[in-house]
Design a protein that fits this description.
398 residues; alpha/beta; TIM Barrel; 8-stranded parallel beta barrel; two-stranded antiparallel sheet; 14 strands
């Protein structure tokens, strides 16, 4: 792999990164300027956040996880969540479910009504109330069910590329990623993405990038994407160099840092929005996020309430007093937000290490919640299908 040296802004610091020559990624007919995908995150990756990230960089920006049954039943909230702004191209939706027929029907609706250009299937959710019903990261253990879901979904998608996102497995003794990766490849998936943790690890510890390399060696005819512990553009470059994966999936690392996609684009040889990471730059990004949320919800109060959860992420490490943080976390109008942001020292520089490190949830390793006798067999018992229906609830992907 040919190497070059690029000087880029990495969260406000000029750094020299060793990168590959300009890298692109093809997922079926979709050609991306950079090999970067925004991971679905419940309550985060709505249209507003996707548009904001896209303004800074390039790549594929995936919707919040959509429950297939809710889509088939045309739940009002779900139908709003699958809408894309006219500026979003290509459009991407992630589906979650446990029943092959329901997932296939949801895919057919997306295709027939032209809701997306790309569909992803989630098999990575580690949330106990999902895995307890056999969904999410627990499902690939039932190998025939997994293959059936992907096969029917690919068939229903037709010319729309369909991909799979998964975890390593349930726990270190019950790994599924290699079998699932090969099965997805055989079923006609356009790419597979691996969050290199097990369900039992939740979001704790460190992602096992070696597993991404193993999957790349096992799955050879479609792109393999890596996910886990990409907090900076340098992390993304190192992951691709270490694992030979074809692209990266970025989740928690962009929380409060939508400009990370600009850093990533630059690192992979594309043009991007310049980043200086002063407090004024961050304040402008936060204000733009709030504005886009107000537009998305068509309600100023609701949009300003929704951006509250982003306050700590945006201003991590910056000299923002407790009174202003509290005000931003309780503001109910753009005028209030403007007043508070106006009190900041916009020339305050990037604070360095204090702004770095893990963002979002982490948790501790825990024994996965699973259906009774789930691990006794790789095949699904005939009596289990009704029990699994409870897994089709709204939760964040893994």
């Amino acid at each position: 792999m040919r190497r070059q040296r690029l000087r880029v802004w990495e969260n406000g610091k000029v750094m020299t990164l060793a990168t590959a020559s300009p890298r692109t990624l093809r997922i079926g007919p979709i050609a991306l300027d950079v090999p970067v995908v925004l991971a679905p995150m419940a309550g985060i990756t709505n249209t507003a956040f996707r548009r904001l990230c896209r303004e800074y960089g390039a790549g594929l920006y995936v919707s919040e996880m959509i429950t297939s049954r809710a889509l088939v039943e045309r739940n009002e909230t779900t139908m709003r969540l699958i809408r894309h702004h006219e500026s979003e191209t290509p459009r991407s939706i992630q589906l979650y479910g446990v029943d092959p027929t329901t997932i296939a029907e949801a895919v057919r609706i997306i295709v027939a009504e032209d809701h997306a250009d790309h569909i992803d299937l989630n098999f990575g959710c580690p949330v106990p109330k999902v895995t307890r019903k056999g969904g999410g990261a627990a499902l690939p253990w039932k190998s025939s069910l997994f293959a059936d879901i992907v096969t029917q979904a690919v068939k229903a998608a037709g010319d729309i590329p369909l991909t799979v996102k998964m975890r390593k497995g349930i726990d270190p003794d019950h790994l599924t990623f290699l079998d699932a990766g090969r099965a997805a490849e055989d079923a006609g998936a356009a790419a597979v993405a691996l969050h290199a943790r097990t369900a039992s690890e939740f979001y704790s510890g460190f992602a096992d990038w070696n597993a991404i390399g193993e999957l790349k060696q096992a799955v050879t005819s479609i792109p393999v994407l890596g996910n886990g512990d990409i907090w900076s553009a340098d992390d993304a470059v190192r992951m691709m160099e270490q694992t030979d994966c074809d692209g990266v999936v970025v989740g928690r690392g962009c929380l409060g840092r939508p400009w990370l996609f600009g850093d990533l684009a630059t690192a992979f040889g594309a043009e991007a929005h310049p980043v200086d990471a002063t407090l004024g730059f961050v304040a402008d990004a936060f204000r733009r996020h709030a504005e886009l949320l107000v537009e998305f919800f068509e309600d100023e109060d609701r949009g300003c309430r929704d951006v509250r959860k982003h306050v700590a992420w945006y201003f991590k490490g910056y000299p923002v007093g407790g009174d202003i943080r509290t005000g931003l976390a309780t503001a109910s109008s753009l005028a209030e937000i403007d007043d508070l942001l106006g009190r900041l020292d916009h020339d305050a520089p990037y604070p360095g290490a204090d702004a770095e490190g893990q963002r979002g949830r982490s948790g501790r390793p825990k024994r996965p919640a699973l259906p009774d006798k789930w691990l006794d067999s790789r095949e699904l018992a005939a009596t289990a299908s009704e029990m699994m229906r409870g897994a089709e609830i709204e939760n964040s992907g893994g």
